Amino acid sequence: MSKFDEKEIEKLLGHMPEIKDEQSSDYYYKNIDQEIQFNRTKRRNKKKSKLLPVVASIAALFMVTLLSMEYLPIGNSSFDESSDIELDEFESDTDMKKYANDEQAESSIEQGEEESMESAEINSEDSVEESTTETFTRLVHSDEEGNENLVTYFFPDEQLQLLIPVTFEQQVADPFEAFNHVQDVIPEDYPLNADFYEYLSFKETDSNGVPVVEVDVNGFRAEYPGGSTVESYLLQTVQAYFAQLNENVVKLENENGESVTFSHTGEIDQPLESKSVKKQPYKIIHLNGIDEPFYVQVPDYSGTSIEPLSIEDAFQRMKQEGEFTDAAPSLPSDWSIQIDNQTDDRLYLSIENVDGENEQNRIIAIETILLTAKSFGFENVVLAIDDIEKIGRYPIGQPIQVPTFVNPHN
Amino acid sequence: MKAIFQDLYDRYHQDLYQFIYYMVKNRTTAEDLVQEVYIKVFKSYDTFKGESSPKTWMFSIARHVTIDFFRKEERRQNRSADYYEWHDHDEQLSDVQPLPDEIAEKNEEIQLLYRCLDDCTEDQRVVVILRYIQELSIQETAEVLNWTVSKVKTTQHRAIKFLTKRMNEVEGGHSG
Fold first, then answer.
1. Do residues A153 and A408 lie in contact, with contact meaning Cβ atoms separated by under 8 Å?
2. Nearest to A370 by CA among A386, A351, A389
3. Is the pLDDT of residue A42 over 90?
4. Which residues of A touch B151 (CB under 8 A)?
5. CB atoms A226 and B77 under 8 Å
6. Percentage helix, strand, coil, to 5, in chain A?
7. What is the nearest CA distance from A305 to chain B, expressed in angstroms?
8. Where are the membrane-spanning stretches (chain A) (predicted)?
9. CB-based contact A93 B21, cutoff 8 Å
10. Share of chain A above pLDDT 70, in %
């Protein structure tokens, strides 16, 4: 007879003891203060290490002087200052914003200094970049020539948080068969890990036309023991690949034609829904040894919202630094994007404050806007930007088709 | 800013620390991770939307910080696997940790349950800790995990079922 039943287990769990922290609040405060100060210094040094032209330096110093005078009563930007804020203010959204504003005011001198220097750098860099640097694109549209043999594969990033799509030219014409030939197209020293594909192979389509993928479970387990995250990304790799081929489900089988069982996920005895990440923003990510950034869709890891994301929120998130992933903003923070209108398949946007950016950053912004719009189900986007007729190859004021492929290799 | 920190500390620190501790089962790691939570909170509170309470928001950040820690551990173990032959053992960091005093002082059943938590999936473990040890409601747990309420309920049900089975196995001497 069993000693424990479910009620007993629940009761025992309720009696698990409190685990007290042996450290003091001062210990944490000191460490956190140091860490935040260190990060700020690091940021500042990084920016200052670039060579500033003399004129830009003078302009920056002038701005710093002005800002310093304006904010003189606030003092410096130490984490330890401004302790006179009411404590109850952390209870609501509005109040959280107040803290944010306090923080912004507190560090305004530093930010003012950084921003003025930064803008001086950007302006001086722009004049060089625009005259000497060619721009690049990371999108392929359906009307472009030579895109018949393109296949997009998905690879996890180093942190195992994002799936990075990369499009290769593939000699294998059948897109299902092409799943088994990633190693034919990916260069040896490519900075993305294609190892997952070694444990996966497209086998056949079953009598209902559902693709069947064979998983080398034993090989995978031996190489990646005890990792639910790794298991999850193996499955997501399959899901993303077949989702782009408009397959709704995909079957998984082991070497013996039986259902697949993973250490953490357990048995998968039902066809896997092949899903791509819908309605999430695209940002950029840098890979080792490749200058141009890649575009990547970034799910919300902040946990701050459980509601479906609106496209306005998606654009907003494209401006934000990622706290939880290596992805970086793809939209300049000062761009103002307004949704003028939308139909089932078309999105109309007005964009302001684009003057400060160089052509390449504008292209990145427009291309990630197109990708994000595509993830929300739009087929084309009409942009309104004052005094600009074209950004890269994208005409302003006319419908722009959302792309077919992203991140083409070479 | 110290006042803000102190307020957060007074309100949430014990809960956050305990949550992280039960996840990682190591005091030093829990201290490092809870510190990281505060840093992330201060870095990102201007993006806090107020759609969840500060408490569930901080727990959510704590969860991501621990997930990130496990990922790094996983990668580290994978890299070291050739040397330590972890391939065959599927060991977790927490397995080798001694019992904390608070648990060691309790009866054998509590100690056993504490050990058996390691055998749950990560999802099951986090739900059990949030629901039974941190005493969060189902709705709060769903907000922390960014899950639906029904997913929390299902995972909780499976976790309890699993723990019951596992406890009986171990108690009956079939711990393999």
1. no
2. A351
3. no
4. none
5. yes
6. 40, 20, 40
7. 6
8. 51-72
9. no
10. 72
Of A341-350, B110-119, B143-152, B165-174, least confident by mean pLDDT is: B165-174
Q: What does the DSSP assignment read for A125-138?
A: HHHHHHHHPPP---
Q: What is the tens place of the pLDDT at every residue in B109-151? A: 999 999 999 999 989 999 999 999 999 999 999 988 888 888 8
Q: Which of B60, B10, B11 is closest to A24 using CA atoms?
A: B10
ipTM of the complex: 0.86
Own/partner pairs for A318-323, CB < 8 Å, 24+ apart? A318/A281, A318/A282, A318/A283, A318/A368, A318/A369, A318/A372, A320/B47, A322/A283, A322/A298, A323/B40, A323/B43, A323/B44, A323/B47
B98-176 has which CATH code? 1.10.10.10
Where does residue A165 rank: exposed (0-12), middle (13-18), buried (19+ CB within 10 A)? buried
Contact at 8 Å (CB) between B17 and B120?
no
Question: How far is residue B26's CA from residue B17's CA, in Å, rounded to a whole number?
Answer: 11
**A85 vs B4, B54, B102: nearest CB:** B4
* Optimal mutation site among A90, A110, A267, A307, interface B, most CBs of chain B within 10 A: A90
d(CA A236, CA B26): 31
Q: Does the CB of B146 have a partner CB in chain A at under 8 Å?
A: yes
A408, two tokens: 């083409």
Q: Which chain B residues are within 8 Å of A159, Cβ to Cβ? A: 68, 71
Third-level CATH fold of B1-96: Rna Polymerase Sigma Factor; Chain: A (1.10.1740)
Q: How far apart are CA A255 and CA A253, in angstroms?
A: 7
Strands, sheet with A200-205, edge to edge from the N-terminal-most edge strand: A200-205, A211-215, A249-253, A272-273
Q: Are A22 and B101 in contact (CB under 8 A)?
A: no
Tell me which chain B residues have a C-beta less than 8 angstroms from the C-beta of A228: 121-123
**A-B interface: how many C-beta pairs under 8 angstroms?**
216
Q: Does residue A308 belong to the interface with chain B, where contact is any CB pair within 8 Å?
A: no
**Chain B partners of A94 at a C-beta cutoff of 8 Å?**
50
Q: Which of B5, B38, B164 sits opposite A4 (nearest CB)?
A: B164
Region class of A246: left (phi > 0), else alpha (psi between -120 and 50), else beta: left
- Chain B contact present for A92, CB below 8 A: yes
Tell me: the pLDDT tens digits for A250-304?
Answer: 999 998 889 998 887 888 988 888 766 678 899 999 888 788 899 999 887 655 5
Nearest CA in chain A to B7: A87
User: With an 8 Å Cβ cutoff, are B142 and A306 in contact?
Assistant: yes
> Is some CB atom of chain A closer than 8 A to the CB atom of B63?
yes
> With an 8 Å Cβ cutoff, is A4 touching chain B?
yes
Query: Does B1 reach chain A within 8 Å, measured CB to CB?
Result: yes
Topology agreement, domain B1-96 and domain B98-176: no
- With a CB cutoff of 8 Å and minimum separation 6, the contacts of A56 are A117, A120, A121, A123, A124
The secondary structure of chain B in percent helix, strand, coil, rounded to multiples of 5, reads: 80, 0, 20
Query: Domain ranges in chain B?
Result: 1-96, 98-176
CB < 8 Å to B29, chain A = none
Q: What is the pLDDT of residues B26-64, one digit of tens each?
A: 999 999 999 989 988 887 666 665 666 888 889 988 998
